[in-house]
Design goal:
This protein is α+β, with helices and mostly antiparallel strands and about 80 residues long. About 40% of the residues lie in helices and about 20% in strands. A three-stranded antiparallel beta sheet has the order 1-2-3. The model has no long low-confidence stretch (mean pLDDT about 85). This is Helix-turn-helix domain-containing protein. InterPro entries: HTH_animal (IPR058912). Pfam families: HTH_animal (PF26215).
Length: about 80
């Protein structure tokens, strides 16, 4: 359980932020979770890897209330996929 006082609140997979009365949302990444996915050289079926990419982009689209938040998440996904090979 994370205790924090401020203008933002993580709720499930969404980061809720209050900026002077304007509510904005973005994707929340848990600090305890590793930013890795299944390596592309693993023996998993090929559809697993396309599902990871598709689901990550859909999540970014649904949870980002601002275009800047979406672009940040898109860059995060790109780096995560590059890191995993």
């Amino acid at each position: 359980l994370d205790y924090k006082i401020g203008n933002s609140l993580p709720f499930l997979d969404v980061q809720l932020t209050n900026n002077d009365g304007i509510l904005s949302t973005s994707v929340y990444h848990k600090p305890s979770a590793e930013p890795y996915v299944t390596p592309f050289i693993s023996d998993h079926p090929r559809h697993v890897f396309s599902n990871i990419t598709k689901t990550s982009i859909e999540r970014a689209t649904r949870y980002s209330s601002k275009f800047e938040a979406f672009n940040y998440e898109r860059r995060y996904i790109k780096l995560m996929l590059l890191y995993n090979g």
